[in-house]
Amino acid sequence: MNFCSNTNNALFFSSVDEISDEIWRNLDCENNVYFHPSFLKAIEKNHPKIIFSYIVLVDKDKNPIAFSSIQIVDFNIDAIKNDIEILIRKVKSIGRKLHIIPNNKPLKLLICGNTFVSGEHGVFIKQDQDKKVLIKELAKAILHFVNADKKLKIDAFLLKDFRNESLLITDELKDFNYHPFSVEPNMVLSLDTNWQNFDDYLASMKTKFRVKARKAYKQSAAIKIEDVTQEKVANQLPEMTALYKKVASNADFNLGDFNLETYTSLKENFGENYILKTYWLNDKIVGFISGIINQNSLDAHFVGIDYNLNRTYAIYQRMLYDYIEIAISKKLKTINFGRTASEIKSSVGAEPRDLTMYFRHKKSITNRILKLFLQRIQPTPFQQKFPFKNENNPHEK
Questions:
Q1: Do 266 and 300 contact (CB within 8 A), yes or no?
Q2: Share of the chain above pLDDT 70, in %
Q3: 72, 86, 154, 157: which sits with the fewest CB atoms below 10 Å from its CB?
Q4: pLDDT, tens only, 297-333
């Protein structure tokens, strides 16, 4: 049951099931899979430790004009392992001396966006609306939501993963004391319309990258790759989960642990449009890939890898090429590879697309301190590769 009273221009829901079919029809947002109720419900029902809420903004005639997905998670800042760790340690040290950051206690973090997928998937605004006005209305609605239930005890707010072209709109959040900072870019491969098959893709590459690809295929020749059907998911989940946890433990940080049971719901709801493949060696699963077809894009989701075998069998490299082969065969336009492992993704042709997050601590003193540190955060640099023949890079032959 919803615990937040509605306002004149905002409706609040604590489950996807509470949102009527009429609202979904008026929003007309289901063409984007991340705003499809079946996708949202699959995430919601398989993550009981996360508090899910949804905000629908309405106009003066009560017609739905915008939608936002909210998740509240317990985020342990001690788990951060990347380059911002030193900054976080300084913030923690100062904050704990001032008694504004609790000791040995996770932050209660409100996230607007998708906790488990990188990209601009938290806010949908209808085309004919003033987006600057509505992003402000969303900020007000989030504050109303938090203030309506003191039991939530939210420490901080994070609106995540906005593309550069959205910043003119989202910078309105600065008026609400949100601080922007850059995060690892989304790595995107734009598919050439001339690529009719994977051989065409290889033919477009410079020699050393084509040799690298053929070597990866040779190394991985012993691996058998299987499509995971809806009927097979349950039996393979234990092994897949173990492999996913190995990858997650190596990540710089995770906002939450993904429950792979979600794949059962996603396969049931999206069928062949949800990609799930397992990699087998000697009758044992040594890896898996997942992803979804969203409009004209293939979005890579989580992978699992047996790191002990990865170098010998080029498992991860092969996975990247398999994503490409799938996208070409389905005549898609782009592949969103997501964050992490930027350099190896660039070696298969992906290019970085900058992403910005907005952060705000509920306590004003802490928020002012955080602003100084967030301004210094920059994505981890990596060496961008240029694998295609028509790319002009003076440093690479």
A1: no
A2: 89
A3: 86
A4: 999 999 999 999 999 999 999 999 999 999 999 999 9
